[in-house]
Amino acid sequence: MKKLINDPNDVVVEALRGIEAAHPELRVDHESKVIYRGDAPKRGKVGLISGGGSGHEPLHGGFVGLGMLDAACAGEIFTSPVPGQILAATKLVDGGAGILHVVKNYTGDVMNFEMAAEMAAAETGARIVSVVTDDDVAVQDSTWTAGRRGVGVTVLLEKIAGAAAEQGRDLDEVAQVARTVNENGRSMGLALTSCTVPAAGHPTFDLGDDEMELGVGIHGEPGRARLPLAPASEIASLLVEPILSDLPFTRGNPVIAFVNGLGGTPLIELYVVFNEVQKILGGRGVPIARSLVGSYITSLDMAGVSITLLRVDDELLSLWDAPVNTAALRWGI
Amino acid sequence: MKKLINDPNDVVVEALRGIEAAHPELRVDHESKVIYRGDAPKRGKVGLISGGGSGHEPLHGGFVGLGMLDAACAGEIFTSPVPGQILAATKLVDGGAGILHVVKNYTGDVMNFEMAAEMAAAETGARIVSVVTDDDVAVQDSTWTAGRRGVGVTVLLEKIAGAAAEQGRDLDEVAQVARTVNENGRSMGLALTSCTVPAAGHPTFDLGDDEMELGVGIHGEPGRARLPLAPASEIASLLVEPILSDLPFTRGNPVIAFVNGLGGTPLIELYVVFNEVQKILGGRGVPIARSLVGSYITSLDMAGVSITLLRVDDELLSLWDAPVNTAALRWGI
Fold this sequence. Notes:
2 copies of one chain form a homodimer.
Chain A: H1 11-22, E1 26-29, E2 34-37, E3 47-54, E4 71-77, H2 83-93, E5 99-104, H3 107-124, E6 128-133, H4 153-166, H5 171-184, E7 185-191, E8 211-214, E9 225-228, H6 232-244, E10 255-261, H7 267-284, E11 288-294, E12 304-311, H8 314-321, E13 324-325, E14 330-331
Parallel strand pairs in A: 3-4, 3-5, 5-6, 10-11
Antiparallel strand pairs in A: 1-2, 2-4, 7-8, 7-12, 8-9, 10-12, 13-14
Helix pairs in contact in A: 2-3, 4-5, 4-8, 6-7
């Protein structure tokens, strides 16, 4: 195992110290492993809290800041945060207008966010609504989920719902925006290599030198098929076609196209894939209204890519374009 | 070789098409492989042109835009752009106030930018000044250089000199700012793995499972030493100490601290390294005024990290903080 780490058990703790030092506008509660806005709580604003296992950086801590999340709870690598962490985050950012939990659909995450919501409601009286993302079309049930896995749409949802909250909309409205994003977005990923969890010290799965895993999950969960290595044009098609056939992505209906690296993939390859994606969408008459190309929801050092398409209208686009100021996404400010 | 590509010979051409599709505010001259600002030429503004071999993305194309570069010339992978490309870029962005060439110190780049400057001066009469970066303290001469290699400081220089040009300063002033950045910045890198050039199809160098290359160049050039794998704390020290001893980084003199991934390294590891860097600097009383953590000057899929420290005063800091709107760096707008 070759990693820039010290003790494998200290990776999350030390990365949080690094994040705190690199981004003075953020605060970190090291005991609860919560990254939160330096200006929290924002009185009268709906608070957005997300979190999940670490190892997917910049998700979620890199999306804390104006126009996006109020707080992110960092679990151990690929392990849900515990309810106490989420409760602590709620207390740190509760501005009195209610809290939206953004939860990726993995059994542990769903359970722990639910438990935390009950605890917070009992302790603080805060009103909490959860929205669960389940955008991965690869498999119906999975190693760690009942139903589909939550993946790339989570990034877009946190941006768009975060903008709605920043505009002062109420909890029901923000939750409705979040649900709309999840309903209109679909994703699928592909691995060229496994990831290696530091505490395990060896690759999560074996993949031959001439193989790739289609439909892989962000923890290295098995996908749809183990296939021979293919060129980028074929890979893009293997990912985009199942997405397009899962929702009516109709001619003329614009999308946000998100080509995401899984952690070990260089940017030049993501642009090669994006070129293939735009050719496929162009051929279908699906306009790309906005795009995002980079490594935003990763699987440690896994080489590979995921593609997310989100159908948008003017309302969602204007929320996407609204100012955001986080470590990983920033514009308009 | 596992890469998200089609024909290895088409990687640069296709990536440029992807960049053009993903960033509508940019223009791409595909024949000359030049990425340039959609609003170029900016009348009365000094034009900043950089470029170099591809494979270091987002450098340089990801830094084209308001407050940074006017144009970037993309050579083939790890191969200098030819003079004709640089000449084409000059014509595309010449706003009549002169042109600054930002050149990393590699023999081919220096020669080709020089030749292009002569051609442009003869053809268009444009006044052109070159600033060469040579911030890598690892080795004095190298595979592809006389003198030190230009690495991470190039990113900081393009941002800071770009801000000076955007403010309307004249060519001599912008060039002076650029020289000041190069003189006050030092870098060093370390590889955990080799990179693989697509057309070669095999790793550039061999590195054992328990080895790392200290002082590696951004094309996989040999560094100072082949060492046994070490924890992040030791790696940070192996990189920071030679930097600190190369310039008087004195107590109280603030720096921009830049921890850069080499392409195959996940963000969580970069934050672990940043934590070590801030501890070392804290112990020396060197304040971190600003930081940059991410993969900005890469070596294809190489796993590893480089560290750049730049001594700054209020003037350089205010140029760093000025608005920038590029694919890879964006703030204030």
